[in-house]
Amino acid sequence: MCERQFKEPLDLNRRVRDMRKRFAIGMLALLVSSFLGVVQSNGEPIKLGVMFISSGPLGGYGINGQRAVTMALEEINAAGGLLGRKVEFVFWGH
Predict the structure, then answer these.
(1) Which own/partner pairs from 22-29 qualify as long-range (CB within 8 Å, at least 24 positions apart)?
(2) Assigned domain for 25 exists
């Protein structure tokens, strides 16, 4: 049988401290990266790729999905975009 051997058992308080520490480091990294993204934005639109099935028996679902994404794109850009930049979707049908 495969039994785990621990050198010393971790108590719950230590585990909680470790999780909080990792969470804080992750949030700090997210904050710094988002700040740097805003500072370095050059006004060009953000391009996101979107892929839908556009042919065959399930092609109708892809067309409806493309329409839904286009509606969401219009709402996002009307509200100011992401990080102050407009958003563009690049559609790819398969």
Answers:
(1) none
(2) yes
Neighbours of 41 (CB within 10 A): 13
Length of the chain in residues, anyone?
94
Q: Are residues 49 and 64 in the same domain?
A: yes
Domain that holds residue 75: 43-93
Q: What is the pTM of this model?
A: 0.50
Report d(CA 87, CA 33) in Å as an integer.
19
Question: If you ran DSSP here, which 8-state letter would residue 9 be given?
Answer: P
Residue 35 in this model has a pLDDT that exceeds 80 = no
The CA distance from 19 to 27, in Å, is: 12
What confidence tens digit (pLDDT) does each residue in 42-83 have? 778 888 888 878 788 877 778 888 888 899 999 999 998 887
In a domain, 22, yes or no: yes
pLDDT value at residue 91: 76
- Residue 6, in any domain of the structure: no
